[in-house]
Amino acid sequence: MNSKRSTPRLLLLALFLALALVGGGVVGGRAATTALAARGAATFTTATGQATPASAPAALPDIAGVAAQVRPATVLVLNLVPGQTPGGSLASPTPGGSGVPQGAGTGFIIDPSGIIVTNNHVVEGAQSLRVVLPPPDNRSFDAQLVGRDPQTDLAVIKIAAPNLPTVPLGNSGALRPGDWVVAIGNALDLTGGPTVTQGVVSATGRDQQEPPTASTPNAAGPTLYDLIQTDAAINPGNSGGPLVNLQGQVVGINTLGSSQAQGIGFAISIDGAKPIIDRLRQNGTVTRAYLGIGGLSVTPPVAAQLGLQRADGVVVEQLVTGGPAATAGLQQGDVITAIGGVPVKEQRDLQAALTTQFKPGQAVDVTIDRGGTSQTIKVTLGTKPGA
User: Fold this and answer.
1) pLDDT at 19 over 60
2) Please, which pLDDT band fits residue 178 given cuts at 50, 70 and 90?
3) Most exposed among 150, 212, 280, 342, judged by the fewest C-beta atoms under 10 Å?
4) Active-site position among 140, 172, 202, 239
5) Could you say which of 121, 128, 149, 172 is catalytic?
């Protein structure tokens, strides 16, 4: 009787000892398992029984740290026009608030001398401008328009003030879809300072036409090239504000938000904006070389529709009578593939070359594809009207 009862006891004891050796005891095994799970430092392989390192969980981005770094240099930009006094007469916008805001947007300080970057459509039509620094600073200054460029929707303004915070410019060319970004701006002109939203880079190299503005309500705005698409919320009032990376560097200038979809906003890439900003600071305007065509980027669908033999370049849809291209002999249907040795794969390439690489009055070789045959035509560039 006793020997029969002792056999199960011996088996249970042996099992308990085995568990103790492997896991440090039943209770100890649970503790060890919990500790390993909490550390995420090692796992055991069934083949060797050796500990191997496991991947540590990725750290979440420090959005609060980025905001604390950039928010002080992100300002409210008020576009002011004359307003009505209590007696009914017009009052000029002056320091102290007698001007009436016709719009509010955002800008960011890039130089301690008071240089601020914003959107052209934020300052367009203003008779005066006022800049308000975010809390806890809250200082308010009249601003001077240094220059603006409707073609790229960029503007530079300046305030005279001491002890100004600044935000550094980064490199948008290093962005990848999926990279974290933070948008900061005066969304809806809400009290309390700039709003902070976060998201990722959804895509780069986007082209998008701007909607009509207050000055041209019946005409669409210019097409903006090489935009950053992001799902960080960009709302009215965010225009002109910084889109920054996790190092607190400006990689884009927030300019458009979609009203037809969720999570689609656009920012002007800082790499394309830098030369425009520099020209505005130096000259107050951007003078562009002018070809005198209406062009369209050639894509496979466009090539199929127009019967073109190539699927890149810019097809000439229209020629300005008496313009540089028409005078030189370009024809409707020609496909521009290079200008001055600069390859032209799409419209943005042509736009960038005429803006940053060539000057009015300069004679350049324009390479075209005409009916499948490559030709080179010398064109003397003009000055873009309204530039």
Assistant:
1) no
2) very high
3) 212
4) 239
5) 121
Task: Identify the pLDDT of residue 258.
Answer: 78
Sketch out the chain's domains with CATH numbers. 2-53 (no CATH), 64-158 (2.40.10.10), 177-272 (2.40.10.10), 289-383 (2.30.42.10)
β-partners of residue 130 are 78, 142
Q: How many helices (H) and strands (E) does the chain have?
A: 8, 23
Judge contact between 376 and 357, C-beta under 8 A.
Answer: no
- What is the C-alpha separation between 247 and 150, in angstroms, rounded? 30
**pLDDT tens-digit map of 131-153:** 999 999 999 999 999 999 999 99
* Phi/psi at 373 (5° precision): -110, 130
Helix axes 347-356, 270-283, angle to 10 degrees: 30
Q: Which of 149, 153, 312, 369 is catalytic?
A: 153
Strand partners, 14: none
As given in the structure block, the two tokens for residue 76 are: 């409210």
More confident position, 222 or 137: 137
- Is residue 167 within 8 A of residue 68, CB to CB? The reply is no
The answer to whether residue 153 is catalytic is yes
Whole-angstrom distance between the N-terminal and C-terminal Cα of the chain?
109
The 3-state DSSP class for residue 121 equals helix
Q: 53 pLDDT exceeds 50?
A: yes
- The C-alpha atoms of residue 247 and residue 35 are separated, in whole angstroms, by 34
